[in-house]
Automatic annotation (TrEMBL):
Signal peptide positions on this chain: 1-19
Originating species: Paraburkholderia metrosideri
Protein's name according to its UniProt entry: Lipoprotein
Taxonomic placement: Bacteria, Pseudomonadati, Pseudomonadota, Betaproteobacteria, Burkholderiales
Keyword terms of this UniProt record: Signal
PROSITE patterns per UniProt: PROKAR_LIPOPROTEIN
Highest taxon of the lineage: Bacteria
Length: 187
């Protein structure tokens, strides 16, 4: 009789320990899924999970990862418009021509007018080439979508296997709630 009881006790103990371990993994998976659903409510960005930290018996779970955002064409156009607005402007051909003619002596007016026309044509050609290369660069950049990555983290607290509270730890725009509450209590 004693020989049969020992294997039964061992199998029962292993099953109980295995059930306790899976509860921890279920809590971490539940927190990850909740984090994904909360992100989907606020933006179409994707979440990549890098690490799941689980506390004792799965009572506290912290999920860390990154939010990847694909820059849309309208966002890229707005960013390039902002860059163009802040870019230094080249001197126009008229300003360069007037500077050259003002510096020329009175006896060489005919020569100065020839130089003025040459400077104006060079300035016009330079501005046209800059505009063309800017257009080419914009078309090359728009061919490949750009991704930005932002660090993200969320914390879930559980009472057994039931979720008690969820809160964003990062990024700041999600961690700072609009209503003023520090975390969302799930009941």
């Amino acid at each position: 009789m004693k020989i049969r009881i020992l294997p039964i006790v061992c199998i029962t103990t292993a099953a109980a320990l295995l059930a306790a371990c899976t509860a921890v993994y279920k809590n971490s998976d539940a927190c990850e899924q909740l984090m994904r659903s909360k992100l989907a409510e606020t933006s179409p960005d994707t979440l990549k999970v890098a690490h799941k930290g689980v506390g004792i018996d799965g009572s506290r779970v912290v999920v860390e990862g990154s939010i990847e955002h694909v820059v849309t064409a309208s966002e890229a156009a707005a960013a390039s418009a902002a860059q163009l607005a802040n870019a230094p402007r080249p001197a126009s051909g008229v300003r360069a021509a007037s500077a050259v003619s003002a510096a020329a002596p009175a006896s060489g007016v005919a020569e100065a007018s020839g130089v003025t026309a040459g400077v104006a044509s060079v300035a016009t050609a330079a501005s046209a080439s800059v505009a063309a290369s800017g257009g080419e660069a914009a078309s090359l950049k728009s061919a490949k979508p750009k991704k930005t990555s932002t660090a993200a983290a969320a914390e879930c607290t559980f009472h057994g296997s039931a979720l008690s509270a969820f809160s964003w730890l990062a990024p700041a725009k999600l961690a700072t709630p609009a209503s003023g509450a520090a975390s969302e209590v799930v009941e």
